[in-house]
């Protein structure tokens, strides 16, 4: 009681008591997390990894099919820029969730996640059946069905950044890394399947018609169609959904959940922690501007002048670099800001070279040599690998803020990605500054 002290002393003592309580409360949380790391469970690693695979496997699988889709789509080389816009339109999901979260908090996250995962399953199986259906818009033929389902599967990926990742705050931070490994594998698995699928070859030949020599091209098919490819991805998405259900409802998983910070604790600590990591959020925004938005839009212009095989390898091997980078982060000091800054420098150099090859299309440097093919594939793989490590590291640092910090991470990711895709679409389809390459 404060009856024997002044009002100001009473307030001071109350603040001290509150701060002491909050300090001990946070120490208890961190202690629980430390114990969870020591006593990690293999089945949680497996389920969390499979849950992470479901975050972006739908969008990544679509990107791996670009080398095949651009050959027959009415948009041709411009198809990636259209689909990148459709992907970024999926940011409607995070926007709606942000408004939902502001009103209801995170108490309904579980049914929302389940609904999003089911939407992804349905969309992928429908895409497998109707991906090549086209229609006329403003007098031109367009891949209407492909664009529509690109939007719905993008809702899954984009929303996962602000919905899936914060749900992991109930588990030790080591499982965040496992989730990110799964997110990386979401690019590796489609790429591996796409390499088995093959791309087919294009052969140029000359025929004589009406006394004139005309150059035409013959194209061999891949080992199996994009429809079969999308069906396989849909099955994997089902497995990912079941994994999340196990994480939420399996008794052995539920008892591994740790005590999370109360809202009052997060509100008390968020401002100081967040302010110290403003630079990391800026880096994250710039990184995803290029890696998630701009570069996928212009990759066809950067790689296709070196041949369809170069485009195929750059697309799929770079996706494989993602989980490799995550595995490296798993065994290193992933929260080192010095490492983040060094890798960002490598990303800058790689980005400059890839932009140069895109803007000098259809005659980029070394486009008629094996060295040029090897270099462009290597640069794309290096870029994606470094970006993957940086994004995971930033997420690991911001994870100290709890679900709120990871929510900010997801928001800045989607904002940067959207602006990158819009710039790419403007350059390709509005000002038409990039020029395509015709092999024949």
TrEMBL record:
Q: Which keywords does the record carry? A: Cell membrane, Membrane, Transmembrane, Transmembrane helix, Transport
Show the catalytic activity: riboflavin(in) = riboflavin(out)
Any one GO MF term held by the record is: riboflavin transmembrane transporter activity
> What does the UniProt entry say about where the protein is found?
Cell membrane
What Pfam families does this protein's entry cite?
Answer: SLC52_ribofla_tr (PF06237)
Query: Where does it primarily localize?
Result: membrane
The way this protein sits in the membrane is described as:
Multi-pass membrane protein
Transmembrane domains' residue ranges = 42-59, 79-100, 112-131, 143-165, 177-199, 227-247, 278-298, 310-332, 339-358, 370-394, 406-428
As given in the record, the signal peptide range reads none
Which superkingdom is the protein from? Eukaryota
- Is Secreted set as a keyword in this record? no
- Name the GO cellular-component terms: plasma membrane
What is the recorded function of this protein according to its Swiss-Prot or TrEMBL entry?
Answer: Plasma membrane transporter mediating the uptake by cells of the water soluble vitamin B2/riboflavin that plays a key role in biochemical oxidation-reduction reactions of the carbohydrate, lipid, and amino acid metabolism.
Q: Which family does it belong to?
A: Belongs to the riboflavin transporter family.
- Put simply, this protein is called Riboflavin transporter
